[in-house]
Amino acid sequence: MAISLNVDLGELPGEPEEFYSIATMVNVACGGHAGDEASMERACELALHAGARLAAHPSYPDRAGFGRTSVVMTSAELTASVRSQVEALARVARRVGMTIEAVKPHGALYHDAARDPAIAAAVALGIDAGLGAQVALVGPPEGALARLAAAKGRAYLREGFADRAYGPDGKLVPRTQQGALITDPAAARAQALRLAGAGTFETLCVHGDTPGALTIARAVREALAAAGHLESRGRA
């Protein structure tokens, strides 16, 4: 099964341009946890030139915590925040000549939307208001966001992680625990092949802020391409 390789980008200064030719889809931070108009424009232009698809990467409005801490918000506040973020990226994307094809929540919002149906609904409403219901959602294989997408007949990309450890229960090891990140490219490569072969995922992620992320992303892409798992969109 062909799957996409997505990388979270537009988050840190000095991100290597090579990421954009490695990824087949780039998730661009749009102001919640990181990113501003300049970083979004750079990301969109690089994605366009590399042939990578564009996804929005909204989060809780939490730049101090990089979006990795849950923020208590009303459903209306969360919907408005998500809408504002995806619209900000959409404006830049249109100017550059790109179209947002998917939305992947970031950090704590990603996990909260999988856990809580009310949060999932607020996120989806914000996306629909800002981009329309035609964009795909990206998230865990199971949970509230996945169920919402299924109920509405909406495109949903089940995501696995090449650079995050999984526990015996199949869930991600929390970042607060030792060994939560996979920083060995060979280990990430092996995990990517295992996840791709499972037939459970439509997309695999490498985080742009993982230590050694560029080397990891190279190794993962090479492995997926060699095994015939990598989708044809994006550069070969």
Characterise this structure.
This protein is an alpha/beta fold. The chain has a single domain (4-226), classed as Alpha-Beta Barrel (TIM Barrel), CATH 3.20.20.370. Helices cover 43% and strands 15% of the residues. The chain is built from 8 helices and 7 strands; from the N terminus they run βαβαβαβααβαβαβα. It has a 7-stranded parallel barrel with strand order 1-2-3-4-5-6-7, surrounded by 7 helices. Helix 7 (185-198) links the parallel strand 6 (156-161) and strand 7. The model has no long low-confidence stretch (mean pLDDT 96).
Q: How would you describe this structure in keywords?
A:
236 residues, alpha/beta, TIM Barrel, 8 helices, 7 strands, 15% strand
Could you tell me the mean pLDDT?
96
Our count of domains comes out at 1
Helix content: 40-55%
Examine the coordinates and then state which fold CATH places here, giving the name of the CATH topology: TIM Barrel
State the separation between the terminal residues, measured CA to CA: 16 Å
Second CATH tier, the architecture: Alpha-Beta Barrel
Give helix and strand order, one letter per element, not per position.
EHEHEHEHHEHEHEH
Strand percentage:
5-15%
**How would you characterize the largest beta sheet?**
7 strands, parallel, barrel
Low-confidence stretches: none
Pairing-aware structural class of the strands and helices?
alpha/beta
Tell me the overall shape: globular
Q: What spatial order of strands do you see in the largest sheet? A: 1-2-3-4-5-6-7
